[in-house]
Amino acid sequence: MPQSWVEESTSAKGYNPWYAYLWHTNLPEKFHRPQTTIPADVFMARGIFGQWIAVIPLHNLVIAKNADDQCALDEAKFMEMVIEAVSS
Known about the structure:
Strand order of the largest sheet: 3-4-5
Distance between the termini: 29 Å
Order of helices and strands: HEEHEEEH
Structural class: alpha+beta
Oligomer: single chain
Number of strands: 5
Helix content: 25-40%
Strand content: 15-25%
Low-confidence stretches: none
Radius of gyration: 13 Å
Shape: globular
Number of helices: 3
């Protein structure tokens, strides 16, 4: 996939500063965590029953959650923990 397409499809459009081409973007702002370790270029997709995929370009990493809504998980905290683990 061309880098230009990734940049275009993950750049917020219109009135919503954290949504673009079905990707959730600007996650530190979206999660209301200005002091987070989640890099600003992380983007994610969410499914109807709680599934999600997060792409962390800085670490060449993709995280996928394939479970239903009964599996409560703080997405931001989980991403912070994974980023901390791969950064050390």
